[in-house]
Amino acid sequence: MHIQDIFHQHRTTFSFEFFPPKTDAASEELFANIARLQELQPSFVSVTYGAGGSTRERTHDLVCRIHRETNLTAVSHLTCVCHTRDELAGILDRYAGSGIVNILALSGDPPREAPDYDRSMDAFRYAAGLVRFIRSHRNPPDARGFGIGVAGFPEGHPSTPNRLKEMDYLKEKVDAGADYVCTQLFFDNRDFYDFRERCELAGIKVPIVAGIMPITSRSGMTRMAELALGVRFPAKLLRGTGRCADDEAVGRVGVHWATEQCLDLLNNQVRGIHFYTLNRSDATRRIYENLGVTDSAALRAD
Fold it and tell me: How buried is residue 205: exposed, middle or buried, by Cβ count under 10 Å (0-12/13-18/19+)?
């Protein structure tokens, strides 16, 4: 289903994000988790894209398998880094031929094995250029073209300390043809509400989806701090996890915190909630149970 139709039909969207595993065995385990989460009937799911396209084939294979073997709408991430125009056009053609209609367009980071990679070799340095390219693609799978999402950063983009410029860049991505904004993870809803209001002041009118990642372990918190540069852990959350004797207890605190975030977001008319699942289903299912949501498809627009 095209992302425009999804937002039209759902008052509040619920979506899950996965990353392509590096082995066939892990891929099968992930697909089993996806099948379990399918019971919750999310509005859509997305699959990440490795830096420099390092997992390009596995991303493509997983997105297409979800499209073929489940009733889920799959959104494929696509990054600018390490790609020429011809390569990007080829990727879009493959997705179009496979019936994939939705893309999350990102600038991306250089591969870890090539930290000094020269971005001047890329067709596009920033996501706005990629959005324009996707929007103008001549072989769309839908008459409206691809559905396109872009990223937003409630706590600020780590490479753009100028918060005024940051909002200008987001507005440029939306004006280039983005259909919605999906935010980076955050743990304090006040950051999201302020971001949403600043988007409104900037004239950004597309749906804004809140990114939520439940904490499941102390090592997971460390990875979040490393991967989501700039993420802020509120003192109250740190105090709660600090009282835990083991990771099982940390996970309970994390699910409780994420549940409270989601309840507050729903009470404040959030347009969508996007769960960064880390390829696991347990935490997300428990949050759904806490929210009383057993079928996200039931939350449709009036």
Answer: exposed
Overall number of domains in the chain: 1
What's the pLDDT score for residue 77? Answer: 96
Is residue 24 assigned to a domain? yes
CA distance 129 to 123: 9
Single-letter amino acid code for the residue at 107:
S
Q: How many Cβ atoms are within 10 Å of 269's Cβ, its own excluded?
A: 9
- Beta carbons of 248 and 1 less than 8 angstroms apart: no
- Domain membership of residue 266 (yes or no) is no
- Tens-digit pLDDT profile for residues 80-131: 988 999 999 999 999 999 999 999 999 987 777 777 778 888 889 999 999 9
Active-site annotation, residues: 17
Element housing 105 (H / E): strand 102-106
The parts of the chain modelled with pLDDT lower than 50 are 302
Task: Answer whether residue 237 is part of any domain.
Answer: no
In the three-class reduction of DSSP (H, G, I as helix; E, B as strand; rest coil), residue 272 is classed as strand
CA atoms of 210 and 212, how far apart (whole Å): 6
Of the candidates 132, 123, 130, the residue with the CA atom closest to the CA atom of residue 83: 123
Question: Distance (Å, rounded) from C-alpha 249 to C-alpha 289?
Answer: 18
- 275 phi and psi, to 5 degrees? -95, 125
Q: Which residues of 116-125 are buried (b: 16+ CB within 10 A; e: fewer)?
A: ebeeeebbbe
Q: What is the pLDDT of residue 251?
A: 96
CATH number at residue 188: 3.20.20.220
- Grouping H, G, I as helix, E, B as strand and the rest as coil, residue 228 is coil
pLDDT for position 292 = 86
Range of the domain at 65: 3-214+274-279
